[in-house]
Specification:
Immunoglobulin-like; 5-stranded antiparallel β-sheet; 3-stranded antiparallel β-sheet; elongated
């Protein structure tokens, strides 16, 4: 691998492909989360594998529930922008320092407890409660991660 390719991976986080899978997320009890990573060409010296969780309360700016909408009210509502307030966020370290071998696939299974937050997923015409998770590998430079993945919490 050339120097330019190594620099690109350092800057973009392209040294691994990371995915996260959640089933049956629930605030009443712990639920399973699976992280998978496909390590590209070179070994990775890592500080940790982690999960980031966030819950956002999203509402349409200026929306009111004053009865049935007319077509004009619906158009105006859809033109308004969503306003997001983060109501909960946390980081959970899944593993510590180590080396992940280039060309190998890895997976980590864990149980997650989010009971300290009481916001369940919720959708209505003017409001949403959105849960998102991101799995990442903490390395020098830009961490390879899954990106933010939306999931439903019951």
């Amino acid at each position: 691998m050339g120097l330019l390719h190594k620099i690109l991976h350092y800057v973009t986080g392209g040294s691994a492909e990371v995915d996260v899978d959640i089933e049956n997320a629930n605030l009443d009890k712990p639920f399973p989360v699976k992280i998978t990573a496909e390590i590209k060409d070179n070994d990775l010296n890592i500080d940790s594998v982690y999960l980031l969780f966030r819950c956002q309360d999203a509402r349409l700016d200026g929306y009111s529930e004053s009865g049935p909408e007319t077509d004009n009210e619906r158009i105006l509502r859809e033109l308004n922008e969503w306003v997001f307030d983060t109501v909960y966020e946390t980081r959970i370290d899944i593993s510590g320092e180590g080396t992940l071998k280039g060309g190998e696939d890895y997976s980590w299974d864990t149980m997650v407890d989010l009971s300290e937050c009481d916001e369940k997923s919720y959708d209505s015409p003017g409001r949403r409660v959105i849960w998102e998770v991101q799995a990442g590998i903490d390395i020098p430079g830009n961490d390879p991660d899954s990106g933010w993945v939306e999931f439903q919490v019951k």
